[in-house]
């Protein structure tokens, strides 16, 4: 018997729970020769801003044990070029494309949300709140519940599409953040973005990354992500999307047990561009072998 | 293209430098000189991300037993510098690697009959062998190969076999001219009145010097760059380099993996880098 694999995130119906994570899958097209995009649940595009952003100086990336640090600096083409150059491809694929975006003021967030709302090819919106608020001395929106709520409320007012809020793990209490975002109108929560880290070149006595610090991703962060998904899923009613170090179907299924309704695959796509598809297929095979009829029965089904 | 390659040979050709031959699908035979592959060193998570290597050579082998189809192969030439390359050097024939490629742009050959000046520093020679193989078909080719010592000047015999005229320079004088290979390149350009065009790959300092030589003498120069790569397909934006007009106010970052690794030297910003 073929297990039922579909799940819902807000009003978005996914053929299976596996998506690709923002910033690790370009705008979809880059990977189309390696992955059958119609075998994954959805893909999330690179974080967009109102104006194109150049990003940070190099080195921007370094491998660390079981993971990698990145300080890309949110380089992206900007919303206008996105509409002109990237949206036509999204139209050609029969898989929902979720647009990830960020701003530096709540107004910028709202403007982006309303512009993305108008694009039929964009199935849902994912707000990245791991950005500094320039109006309030650069405090990262996602590290202050009031700041985060103001951004989410501004976006909520600007779109009827499914609004996913992506939480930063660089906080003391992720549950407090999750609840603030839910109360402000989030339809779902993505947990987690990268953890701030650092690498040092001993002989040169310098930081490896030009930006000094960067975001840690990959298998090294999986236990932390799993814990945060578990904590958040218990505390909110909206669906949680589990992200962080997912490399295999087993990893993805563990996130679902912890309470995730869907998952996103990030760094794994660099290691194996077909990872998201292979994970979706592997999950289905796992369920079939154990005669589990519906993947939804696994969500939050952690025992003990 | 993503494929599984079986190692056919993995041998140390000079202290610290290895040459690996592996099976490849027939599409790999279409690889352009200057393109690269991303190698997953092993299926575990350590090392995690793939490592980029230039395509040193491609070809086909006639299997020993008649009747079997010719086997296309891919070769890389690598220097052991860390964990990933160290692990590669311990692999043996019949081990399997996961490869992505061919990736990136290649060199443009330029007009037939024109003098081609190839400049390689150390393991930078890797992508230049396939280039020389192409260029000798219709042009006179000269190689300028440099390194710290004679052990860092690789595969000269192979280039000579192609009919390439080779000039070498080492910093300790253990092979060829004593000093930098760029000096030898300049001598040749002086002697010919700046004829031909330059193709270079090697350490950043050497490329910068070569770019300067090309610019000063109005000789077209193509360089193959490196960047720290996670994906090799334009998605992570980790590998970027700066275009000529780059400044903090007007940033111009180019993706080394998709817009390069081969660039016209005149398109890139070299000062301060
Ligand atoms: C397009 C391109 C073509 C290359 N071709 C060749 C080649 O033909 N032969 C060859 O010997 N080397 C080549 N290199 C360099 C080679 O990729 C690195 O030497 C190798 O990745 C080092 O891996 P490691 O694990 O041994 O080193 P590590 O211990 O991980 O690091 C040592 C140094 O290697 C470099 N490095 C590590 N990982 C990467 C990465 N993912 N991308 C880029 N640089 C990295 C960094 O400068 C680092 O400081 C090429 C690089 C690029 C970008
Ligand atoms: C190179 C790189 C770029 C990223 N860019 C973004 C981005 O633009 N917006 C965003 O919300 N997350 C971004 N992320 C975070 C990922 O989407 C994901 O949350 C994180 O990498 C953890 O998942 P992983 O361990 O599976 O990679 C980026 C991650 C990486 C590695
Ligand atoms: S290596 Fe990822 S964009 Fe170039």
Task: Describe it.
The complex is a heterodimer of chains A (304) and B (273). Chain A is α/β, with parallel strands linked by helices and 304 residues long. Chain A is 31% helix and 22% strand. Chain B folds into three domains: 2-103, Translation factors (Elongation Factor Tu (Ef-tu), domain 3); 107-224, Nucleotide-binding domain of ferredoxin-NADP reductase (FNR) module (Rossmann fold); 227-273, Ribbon (Dihydroorotate dehydrogenase B (pyrk subunit), domain 3). Chain B contains five helices and 16 strands. The A-B interface holds A 23-26, 30-31, 33-34, 46, 54-55, 58-63, 65-68, 70, 72, 75, 218-219, 247, 267, 269-274 and B 1-2, 40, 45-50, 98, 100, 227-231, 233-241, 251-253. Flavin-adenine dinucleotide (FAD) binds next to strand 4, strand 6 and helix 1 of chain B.
Mean pLDDT of chain B: 94
- CATH-level-4 superfamily name of chain A: Aldolase class I
For the record, give the distance between the C-alpha atoms at the N and C termini of chain B, rounded to a whole number. 33 Å
Q: Order of strands across the widest beta sheet of chain A?
A: 3-4-7-8-11-12-17-18
- Using the alpha-carbon principal axes, give the shape of chain B: globular
Strand-residue proportion of chain B: 25-35%
Biggest interface, and residues per chain? A-B, 34 and 28 residues
SS strand fraction of chain A? 15-25%
Q: What is the level-2 CATH architecture name of chain A? A: Alpha-Beta Barrel
H/I helix tally of chain A: 8
Number of domains of chain B: 3
What sort of overall outline of chain A do the alpha carbons produce when their principal axes are compared?
globular
Report strand order across the widest sheet of chain B.
4-3-7-1-2-6-5
Bound molecules: flavin-adenine dinucleotide, flavin mononucleotide, FE2/S2 (inorganic) cluster
CATH class of chain A: Alpha Beta
